[in-house]
Structure formats: structure tokens, C-alpha cells
Amino acid sequence: MALELSHTTVNALDAHAQSVWWADLLGYHEDPSDPNEPGHEECMIFSPDESHRLLFIEVEDAKQVRNRVHLDLRPTDRPRDEEVERVTGLGGTVVQDCRTDDGRGWVVMADPEGNEFCILRSDVERRAAGDL
After folding, report:
1. Lowest CB count within 10 Å: 62, 70, 98, 103, which one?
2. Residue pair 44/54 in contact by the 8 Å Cβ criterion
């Protein structure tokens, strides 16, 4: 028997605010027939091709320790360092800088509620370094 990933669920203090932030970050959208609204306890967003979904569910307790699961994100239209600047401009914060002198590595970031994710190098950068 095989399983298929339905969606990724993220606990949130404010499901709507988190869905808006992540939609801006990833270029995702909400379901126009079931829009996310402030005060909704569950807010889902969809990738542009609708192959992936993120569901934000409100919980009462704030994140307290490091995530056990996180997203690794690869830029598609700009280098990693430019993407880190864009994410910082959206309100993300750098948690740990794991970039190396030779241009490899990644940056661990956090969303406005402290959920961690990583920004990796783009495929263009990986090809230029001979890593693809």
C-alpha cells in the first residue's frame, strides 16, 4: 500500500496571519470558494499548481523548542542570498547562517511565529558549483 502526502500542517497562534505570510513567501493562494478570514481556526493555502497545500491550525501554546520537522526551500528565480534578503523583508528572521566560504550551505530562518525553515541554494547556483 502506498501513501500520498495530502498537505503539511503547521500549528499557529494566528492561523490567518500565518497563512497570509506563507502565501506571500511561497506565491501560494487560498481557495477562492473557501477564503481564509481573520479568526478562522484553520486556514489552508495551495501551491500555484495546487500540488501542495499548507494548513495552519490555531493552537493555544506558542512554539517553545526547535521544530522536529521543517521545510527546506529552494529559490527558483534568484540566488539564495537574494531570497534570504526578500524573506527578511517579509518579516522572517535568520536563526542560523550555515553558508560556507565557497558559497555552499544554507540559512536557517524563522517565520513571524518562530517556525523554522531553510533557504537552500538555487539549482542555478548548484550547477555553477558542479553540485548537480
Report:
1. 62
2. yes
Q: What is the pLDDT of residue 97?
A: 97
**Integer Cα distance of 80 and 89 in angstroms:** 14
- pLDDT score recorded for residue 66: 78
Rounded Cα–Cα distance for residues 128 and 123 (Å): 8
> Can you read off the three cell numbers belonging to residue 90?
517579509
Amino acid letter for position 35: P
CA angle 129, 73, 94 (to 5 degrees): 95
Q: What are the pLDDT digits (tens) for 55-94?
A: 999 999 888 887 878 999 999 999 999 999 999 999 999 9
Among candidates 74, 25, 22, which has minimal Cα distance to 43?
A: 22
